[in-house]
Every structure is written in structure tokens, then in C-alpha cells.
Specification:
Strand content: under 5%
Oligomer: single chain
Distance between the termini: 22 Å
Structural class: mainly alpha
Number of helices: 16
């Protein structure tokens, strides 16, 4: 299968663009907090506001449908990666609250629009057996790029300031997008995609699973690492090592997920994810061991990669012409919780830090009930 995939121009195209956005996002995440505090002198409220602005483009994913009137989908994908890289590249030039907010919005807009078009193109250009392999390969590549960017920033930081590190990282991504723009992966024999908002009753399960997945992901993203720093005293080096271990494991395990979807099906893979994640969240809430918490973090990341089965499920039940608008709708729904969960969960944390994690376990069980309705 890999031999046939390598002959597919869209496969190489999407892998290249995936590497670009992974580098941009990892570079931004690595440098942002230090730049915001040391260079821009921002306070906690301003940093929180910027993080909220970063999620706005997730809601704007629906506009991808209308952007397709202006350019073809594969061109929108490469333009989005260019935008993402350019946003990172110029971030260091604007060490102010307004400057960082604007560059963050540009970077995030490029990232979210690429993710939407990436999901859509993956389902259009590959068959039911190839798609899980392609999506899991992208997860594996993402982990490898995270490692490489982390090592690069670690090495260059000895003789480069943060603004230059932003410029180098973003510049590499811009060059990747320019190179990819010269490629011609498009096929004209595929079904034309609807360029309108589509919301169908038969896709309701897909919408619900996306919402629950986004809500659980926010609890994990916002509170899991914070738990280890706040409760167990993990240092920056400790968190960095944990991220490194996590990315190495995901690099090797992610390709296996695609093969598992083909062998066992979406229902069994998602059942395993939701059942495991429910226990993981409960363990977060009640463990007193920093080592157990670190292990839970790695397990959490591994099983969250199973979420690609939500997309492959849609590929099997959806109409070919509905893929692009449905991926835009699904991505928007996935981000609804991004605004509510951090604030609401943070308030509950002040009452008892266990509450957000127990809530995550409840969301996992709700997902488990929903996935029992999958029929392909």
C-alpha cells in the first residue's frame, strides 16, 4: 500500500504541508510564553486573551466553504500553510499586546484552514483502506517534526534571540509552502464539492462525536500539564522531557493506528479510545503520584490519535460531494468547546481540581454510548 501511496502526488503534497504546519505550531508554542513575558512584558490577562483569540479561527472554519469560490481546495491548503508560516515569521517583530494578538490570529487562521482542507483532501483523494494509513502517517510525521523543531530551537537559542528564532522557524515554513505551490497534485475526475453550508440529519453522529472529542481535548490540553506543574511541581525541563517522550512514542505508534482501523473498524477503535480515556481522566483526578500522572499523559496522547476514526467513519457514510463542507462544519463544531471549557473548567478547578477531570470521564462515557451507534 505504501508503494502505491508514494506514487500519489496528493500524498506527498499533504505530507509536505503537514510538516510545515507542524513546524510552525511547535515553534510558536515553544517560544510564545517566553516572548510574551520577556520581550513584550504581557500580564496573565493579556496572555489569556491572546490564547482565546487563537481559537477564533476554529469557529471561522465554516468560511472555508466560501473561500473555495476564490481558489481550488489544494491551493487554499498551500496558501493556508504560507499564512501560518508568515504569521510565525513576523511574530518577533511585534513585541506588544496588539502585535502578538494580530500575528497569532494570522498564524492560527492559516493552521485551522489547512487542517480543514487537509481533512477534506485526505478523504477525497484516498480510498477507504488508504485513508486511515495516510491520516496516521500524518500524525507520525507531526510527532517527528515536533522533535526536530524542539532540538533546532534548543540548539539555536544559545546564539539567537527569540525574535530571530521566530523568523527562522516561520521562514522555513514559508519556503516549504512556496515549494509545494509549484506541485500539481490536483485531479479533475473527482466529484465536485458543494460550495454551501451542509447540515444533514444522517451526519448527526459525526457532529456529536466531533463536539465531544473537542470538549475532551480541551480538558486535556488546558488542565493535564497544568496539573503536573501546579500539583506535582514539574519543572520546564521535566515538561520538555515528557513532551519528547510523548512525541517519540507517537512517531512509532501512530502508523499502527491506521492499520488497526482497517483491521478492526472504527467502532472498535473508538470504543477502545473512549473506554480508556474515561479511566485515564478518573486516574488524573485521584492519583497522588507524579509518575502515574506522567504515564497518564502519554496514554492520553496515544489514544487521542484514535480520533482519526471519526473522519474515516464519515468517509464511509457520507456522500462524496459533501466531504469539503462537512469537514468545515465538523472542525467548527470541534472548536465550540474551546471557548467554554477553559473558563468554566478553570472556575471548577478553584472549587476542586478533580472536577474538570471527572467531567472529562463523563464526556468519555457519553462518547462511548454514541459510538455504539456506529454502523458502516
Amino acid at each position: 500500500m505504501y508503494a502505491s501511496l508514494k506514487k500519489n502526488p496528493m500524498y506527498i503534497y499533504l505530507l509536505l504541508l503537514t510538516a510545515g504546519t507542524a513546524a510552525a505550531l511547535q515553534g510558536w508554542n515553544t517560544l510564545f510564553n517566553n516572548f510574551a513575558v520577556d520581550n513584550a512584558g504581557l500580564n496573565g490577562l493579556q496572555v489569556g486573551a491572546i490564547q482565546s483569540v487563537r481559537e477564533i479561527p476554529g469557529f471561522l472554519s465554516l468560511l472555508v466553504i466560501y473561500a473555495l469560490f476564490l481558489m481550488k481546495e489544494h491551493r487554499l491548503a498551500v496558501f493556508s500553510v504560507f499564512l501560518c508560516g508568515a504569521g510565525v515569521m513576523v511574530t518577533g517583530m511585534f513585541p506588544s499586546f496588539t502585535g502578538i494578538m494580530v500575528t497569532t490570529f494570522i498564524t492560527s487562521l492559516g493552521f485551522h484552514y489547512f487542517e480543514t482542507t487537509n481533512q477534506s483532501l485526505s478523504l477525497q483523494y484516498f480510498n477507504h483502506l488508504e485513508t486511515p494509513v495516510v491520516l496516521s502517517k500524518m500524525r507520525s510525521l507531526n510527532a517527528m517534526v515536533n522533535i526536530l523543531v524542539g532540538v533546532m530551537i534548543w540548539g539555536l537559542s544559545s546564539f539567537m534571540g527569540i525574535p530571530w528564532l521566530f523568523a527562522v522557524t516561520g521562514g522555513i515554513v514559508v519556503l516549504i509552502s512556496i515549494y509545494a505551490a509549484r506541485m500539481k497534485p490536483h485531479r479533475s475526475d473527482l466529484p465536485l464539492q458543494h460550495k454551501k453550508f451542509i447540515f444533514k440529519r444522517k451526519y448527526l453522529l459525526f457532529y456529536v462525536l466531533n463536539f465531544l472529542s473537542g470538549a475532551r481535548r480541551q480538558i486535556f490540553t488546558v488542565f493535564a500539564v497544568y496539573l503536573m506543574v501546579n500539583r506535582y511541581g514539574y519543572s520546564i525541563k521535566g515538561v520538555t522531557v515528557l513532551f519528547l517522550i510523548n512525541n517519540v512514542i507517537n512517531y512509532f505508534l501512530s502508523p499502527m493506528i491506521g492499520r488497526a482501523i482497517n483491521r478492526f473498524g472504527e467502532r472498535k477503535l473508538l470504543t477502545a479510545e473512549y473506554l480508556t480515556i474515561s479511566f485515564v481522566f478518573l486516574a488524573y483526578a485521584f492519583t497522588d503520584s507524579p509518575y502515574v500522572a506522567a504515564g497518564l499523559y502519554v496514554i492520553d496522547n496515544i489514544f487521542f490519535n484514535f480520533a482519526i476514526a471519526i473522519r474515516t467513519y464519515f468517509q464511509k457514510v457520507g456522500e462524496p460531494a459533501d466531504i469539503a463542507p462537512s469537514m468545515a462544519v465538523g472542525f467548527t463544531i470541534n472548536h465550540i468547546a474551546a471557548v467554554v471549557i477553559p473558563v468554566f473548567g478553570g472556575a471548577l478547578w478553584l472549587v476542586d481540581y478533580r472536577i474538570p477531570f471527572v467531567g472529562g470521564a463523563v464526556l468519555g462515557m457519553m462518547s462511548l454510548l454514541c459510538v455504539s451507534r456506529i454502523k458502516t
